[in-house]
Amino acid sequence: MEIVRNPESTTVGRDDSSRAAPDHLAVAASKLVVQGVSKTFRGEGQSVSAIGDASLHVKAGEFVSLIGPSGCGKSTLLYMIAGFVKPDAGSITFDGKAVQGPGVERGIVFQEYALFPWRTVLGNILYGLQLRPEMSATTRTETARKAIDAVGLAGFEQHYPRQLSGGMKQRVAIARTLACRPDLLLLDEPYGALDALTREDMQDQLLEIWRATGQTIIMVTHDVTEAVYLSRRVVVMSARPSRTKHDVLIDIPREGTRDEIMSTRRFIELQTQVRQLVHEEARMAKPGGVR
């Protein structure tokens, strides 16, 4: 896995609550374009409208977090981008091509590690690469080992999942996706099951990987602090049936330690702003709430 240094991108924050017409220049410059998608799940005698009208434009190299009230459809939107779920209406394009299903250019990491217990760390990471016949066995192994180094697991190649901590298992899951070199990395609450200290360590490691590779990343999270610390934009989704309602530019200073960054006035302001937006949407989701 080649590591290429890439400068951080800048974006313009916006509030989508007014449903203004899309900026066509911004859409044209976007790597991912989600336009007016909706999704309703239908079961036995009942239906659940998960996504009402969601739009999202993401440029190459951006780190964007999706956040919103519990059950608002954040993961559903991510799965539609990944190609696992088809929208009922609207469109999703990646690099100008319609998303019709899963693709190697869009890699996803789930909250559950989904590792093969009978495979070692190296074996788990090699699994996806073995589905690429154009790669030689030597190239696959070299690529897998570089991914292992990138997530700080050198020396654990022959360990099995049962021998790893929760944080180490998640690193394997991330390395398995990174090894396939996706253009877009999708993260579905990847640190939700980890303890606080391990979570912070994994957040910092993800930032290092993003800064080194310049990958485009979209992460679903329910943690406001995590979203503001990691992202360059935070998109707040409304209550179900959800839409992408607020788009907040995270223009915090990036120099210094985690504690120094989080103690800056701007970080605290943005953290408060995003939290208030999420709480507002959560209140609207309750009986009697007004949209």
CATH superfamily label of the largest domain: P-loop containing nucleotide triphosphate hydrolases
Given as residue ranges, the uncertain stretches (5+ residues, pLDDT < 50) are 1-25
- The CATH architecture of the largest domain comes to 3-Layer(aba) Sandwich
- Note the overall shape: globular
Work out the radius of gyration.
19 Å
Give a short overview:
It contains 9 helices and 11 strands. The protein has helices at residues 24-28, 74-82, 121-129, 137-150, 166-179, 196-213, 224-230, 258-262, 265-285; strands at 14-15, 32-42, 47-58, 63-67, 89-94, 97-98, 106-109, 184-188, 216-220, 233-237, 244-249. 38% of the residues are buried.
Q: Secondary-structure map with pairings?
A:
Layout: E1 14-15, H1 24-28, E2 32-42, E3 47-58, E4 63-67, H2 74-82, E5 89-94, E6 97-98, E7 106-109, H3 121-129, H4 137-150, H5 166-179, E8 184-188, H6 196-213, E9 216-220, H7 224-230, E10 233-237, E11 244-249, H8 258-262, H9 265-285
Parallel strand pairs: 4-9, 4-10, 7-8, 8-9
Antiparallel strand pairs: 1-11, 2-3, 2-5, 5-6, 10-11
Helix pairs in contact: 3-4, 3-5, 4-5, 7-9
